[in-house]
Amino acid sequence: MTNLAAQRTTPMLNKVPEVTIYFWIIKILATTVGETGADFMSVTLNLGLGGTSMLMAILLAAVLAMQIRAQRYVPWIYWFTTVLVSVVGTLITDSMVDILGVSLPAATAGFAVALTATFAAWYASERTLSIHSIHTRRRELFYWAAILFTFALGTAAGDLTAEGLGLGYAPSALAFGALISLVTMAYYSLGANAILTFWIAYILTRPLGASLGDLLSQPTTNGGIGLGTVLTSIMFIAIIGSLVVWLSLGGRDPDLGRTTAER
C-alpha cells in the first residue's frame, strides 16, 4: 500500500520526447511501417484482418502497459508503442472499410469526430493539449487515445485521396507533404500557435506515411514502386531501430532525462 501511494504522489518526468527533427523522422517512418506492416501480416502471412487485429491489439496492450508504468520517457518503449499504435490504427480502419463495409468518406469523417471529441475531453479535463506536459497518468491516456485516432484518421484520409479519389500514391504523398510544409511555414514564419500546428502536422504525417508505404510496397501495376510489404517494412524498421538505439545510448535528443520544469 505504501509503494502504491508513493507511486501516485511521485511526479513523473515528461513521457513524450522533445519535438525535434528525430521525432518527425521516426514518426513518419512509423506511420509507413503501420501501413506496410498491417498489410504484410494480414495478406502476406495470411492471418487475415481479424487474426492480425487480435494479435496486434494484445501486443499493443502489453507494450502500452510498459509505457504507462514507466516514470519517464524511454525511447525504445515509447517508439515501440507508437509503431504498434500505427499498425493497430491502420487495422481498425481497414477492418471498418473491408469487413464492415464503411465507406472511406464516412470512416474519415467518423474518425475526425472521434479525434475532436478526444481533444475536447482532454482539454476540458486538463486545460491544455500540450505534449510537453504529459506527466500524469490521465494526460498520458488522453495522449495515446488521441494518437490512436490520428493514425486511424490518417489511414482513412490517405486511402481516400490515393484510392477513393483516384489521385494515386505519389500525388497523394506530395499533396500531404505540401500541406505539412504550409503548416511548418505558418508556425515558423507567421507565429501560428505551437500546439495547434503540432497536432495538425501530426495528423497529416499519417496519410503521408500511408501514401509513401503504399507507393513503395504496391506493385507497379497498381501505381507503386513494387518493393513489396516485406522489404519496405524491414527497411523502415531497421532505420527506426537504429535511430532509437542511438537515442537510447545518449544521442542528442533534448528530452532524455529532463523534466517539464527544466524546459
Could you explain the architecture of this structure?
With 263 residues, the protein is mainly alpha-helical. The protein has one domain. The protein is 75% helix and 0% strand. It is built from nine helices and no strands. Helix 2 (21-44) runs antiparallel to helix 3 (48-69), helix 3 (48-69) runs antiparallel to helix 4 (75-99) and helix 5 runs antiparallel to helix 6. It is globular and about 50 Å long. 40% of the residues are buried. The model is unreliable at 1-10 and 253-263 (pLDDT under 50).
Short description:
Helices cover about 75% and strands about 0% of the residues. By secondary structure, the chain is mostly helical.
Number of strands: 0
Characterize the overall form: globular
How would a crystallographer describe the biggest sheet?
Answer: none
Helix proportion of residues, in percent? over 70%
What are the segments in which pLDDT stays under 50 over at least 5 consecutive residues? 1-10, 253-263
Radius of gyration: 18 Å
Mean pLDDT: 86
> Structural class, judged by helices and strands?
mainly alpha
Tally of alpha and pi helices: 9
Alpha-carbon distance between the two ends? 33 Å
Number of domains: 1
- Strand residues, percent: under 5%
- In N-to-C order, the SSE pattern is HHHHHHHHH
